[in-house]
């Protein structure tokens, strides 16, 4: 495993075991999740969102969340993350021992009501309650709020940019350590990403968190690069783009980690991830989810002969 002391320019936060798995119908056996996470760590990933703490009847794919967190914690130097929608989830995640929790907060009122049956204002209150619980019980745990549907929503269409900026400021005021922006439904374009991240950064500064981009319309990498250009340095992505959108056949879900690492490394921007080992991790994923399509242009094409490209450094 590469030393975590090696400096990196961008942090790739792997979300396949959470975002990817919760978007597919098949349930990956727990033992296969372990091997997959081990392979991701061996490739040099330093942060992995390993599970979602939600009721098992809603997401049977996540019923083993506590076991998966405990397994991931064996890797020293790995930041173990989990998604929690509410205080109850946060309590379970903290009890399991996570280093960091991420709370989705919808910028779209329609999405918020449909997803968590809460208004945005009520969700900010929930965030504040989670922060207070964390402060009392586990002050070392980091909290991120991901502003979901920040770039558009399938239920209500446009999402006002003022609402996104307001919400990012509101969750920071509620005490989160960072707030990122999520293109939950894959509607963002690079000009919008540049504009919105710039506005959010001028509002919350260094508390600006990850760019969470989906590749639903093929703009995932372009959107990541746009975010990079305006100062974003943490990127969520998913191995093999797991979790293809059922409404867009052939489209991958999250930005493909392999392609994202290829783009940054080819530009001389260090990710700390070994692309050859990363591509090898696909077999662990496939073993646990036979029949599930794997995406990614870099794995299809293979690495260039001169990889890693010394002229880019
Ligand atoms: Zn997502």
Describe this protein's structure:
The protein has 313 residues and is an alpha/beta fold. Helix content is 42%, strand content 14%. It has a single domain, classed as Aldolase class I (TIM Barrel, Alpha-Beta Barrel), CATH 3.20.20.70. It has an 8-stranded parallel β-barrel with strand order 1-2-3-4-5-6-7-8, surrounded by 9 helices. Strand 5, helix 7 and strand 6 form a beta-alpha-beta unit. Helix 2 runs antiparallel to helix 11 and helix 7 runs parallel beside helix 8. The radius of gyration is 18 Å and the shape is globular.
Please tag this protein with its features.
alpha/beta; TIM Barrel; single chain; 12 helices; 42% helix; 313 residues; binds zinc ion; globular
Spans of 5+ residues with little confidence (pLDDT < 50)?
none
**Dominant shape:** globular
Rg of Cα set: 18 Å
Mean pLDDT: 93
CATH class: Alpha Beta
Order of helices and strands: EHHEHEHEHHEHEHEHEHHH
Q: What is the makeup of the main sheet?
A: 8 strands, parallel, barrel
- Give the neighbour order of strands across the main sheet: 1-2-3-4-5-6-7-8
Which architecture name does CATH use?
Alpha-Beta Barrel
Strand and helix map with partners:
Elements lengths: L10 E4 L1 H7 L7 H13 L4 E6 L12 H8 L6 E5 L3 H10 L3 E7 L2 H8 L3 H18 L4 E7 L12 H13 L4 E5 L7 H15 L3 E5 L7 H10 L4 E4 L19 H10 L8 H14 L8 H5 L12
Parallel strand pairs: 1-2, 1-8, 2-3, 3-4, 4-5, 5-6, 6-7, 7-8
Helix pairs in contact: 2-3, 2-11, 4-6, 7-8, 8-9
Zinc ion binds next to loops.
